Amino acid sequence: MVLNKSVFLKKKIVLGITASIAAYKAASICSRLADMGADVVPVMTPNALNFITPITFSSISGNKTIVEQFANEKKIYHISLSHSADIFLIAPASADTISKLSYGICDNLLATSAVSATCPVLIAPAMNESMYLNPIIQKNILRLRKSGKYFFIGPKSGNLACGEKGLGRLEDEDIIIERLGELLNYSSDLKGKKIVITAGGTREFIDTVRYISNRSSGKMGYALAEEAYFRGAEKVILISTVRNLPQPYGVDVKYVEDSSGMKKVLDKYYSTNDVAVMAAAVSDIIPLKKYNFKLKKKNDILSRISFKENENILKYLAKEKKKNQYLVGFAAESGYNSRDVLEKIKDKNIDMIVANDISREDIGMESDYNEVDIVRQDGAVKKLARDKKRIIARGIWDEIVKSLTER
Ligand SMILES: Cc1cc2nc3c(=O)[nH]c(=O)nc-3n(C[C@H](O)[C@H](O)[C@H](O)COP(=O)(O)O)c2cc1C
User: What is the reported pTM?
Assistant: First the structure.
């Protein structure tokens, strides 16, 4: 293993230890991380005290091991600890703790800190194979994975403490540490970047109650914003037309209704941003005139309304784009091929287009899932298989980060 030890230097790592027979192995992991210059804060579940004593971890790390949820009168540890961490490792992670996290149960300090963490949480399960392969535990693991905040490493197969052989041994220390190092890099790869994202379908008002819009739910834009904050972006502004989604943590949401409102907010923030991702579905057509009263049937509504083509905001931003800015557009099409998408990029001086096929019911608009083709200015195409929008958002940011570093 080629490990860049400096990755850990001065990094604050919360090391969670649960009540598994493998708890003793956490002492060695703690020691390795401390040797590499990390500031390791050990946190044990009360049940883990049956397996190993806190003094072991306090001595190795040089930090007091925290166990009790209610013992700290001055510091609000359950939040401040996880928010100050660069990364969180739970090794070994019991079936019980994994299931708690999956349901957001916070009845001990370790679980509360892991639920409130804003950094990546790496979970290394260790348990008997029958526990690990239990469909309920597998479902809990999958739910945590898909949420975007939790990452898993192992377990591996081999001899288990109960005398059986099977899948459930804590992953090798080297592999756990290597993955932790990767995630440390990853959690700061947007550090210092200012990002603006749009989300949702615009509502173009005909009169005070009627509007023309589209089925865009905004979920893709929200997932992109969540992921950008998670990866250390300095500032994430989300310009959104939807108000029914939870506000992503750490993200500054600006609500708008129509495309002209969206453009106004973009005019204010676009020029100072490093990356702009236009995930909103801006209406192609808008009413020629907006009535400031509700048209009545007897007003002969149909004869009074007509539509015109809307300004293309993406094209407008492409024109305004400075050299150091990176602009990403979305293309929601009923079937497409990547050559057409590339033409669109060339046309508009856009750096990347994320295309998805909205003729499918199982992905795209309104769905929690997506499947996309990421087309770059240089013609490179990256396909992302169907997955939860948060995981697709991760793949899109991976490509953006790659392009930014290649510049
Ligand atoms: C000797 C012994 C070994 C155990 N080893 C494991 C284990 O490796 N993995 C696991 O998930 N549970 C294991 N358990 C069960 C957990 O200790 C139990 O579910 C506990 O409630 C977990 O608490 P915690 O998640 O709060 O740390 C073990 C129990 C005993 C008595």
Answer: 0.89
Other CB atoms within a 10 A radius of the CB of residue 78 amount to 22
Q: Is the dihedral of CA 227, 228, 233, 236 positive or negative?
A: negative
Burial of 357 (0-12, 13-18, 19+ CB in 10 A): middle
Identify each DSSP E strand in 241-364 by its residue range. Answer: 252-255, 275-278, 285-287, 307-309, 326-333, 352-357
Q: How far apart are CA 238 and CA 227, in angstroms?
A: 12
Residue 382: beta bridge partners?
374
Q: What are the structure tokens assigned to 167, written together?
A: 């899948």
Band of the pLDDT at 395, cuts 50, 70, 90? very high
Q: Which residues contact 308 (CB under 8 A, 6 or more apart)?
A: 285, 286, 287, 288
Whether the pLDDT of residue 77 is over 90: the answer is: no
Of 326, 327, 323, the C-alpha closest to 313 is 327
Domain that holds residue 374: 194-406
Residue nearest atom 17 of ligand 1, based on CA coordinates: 19
Domain count, the chain: 2
Atom 14 in ligand 1: which residue has the minimum CA distance? Answer: 20
Which CATH number covers residue 288?
A: 3.40.50.10300
Q: From the CB of 187, is ligand 1 less than 6 Å away?
A: no
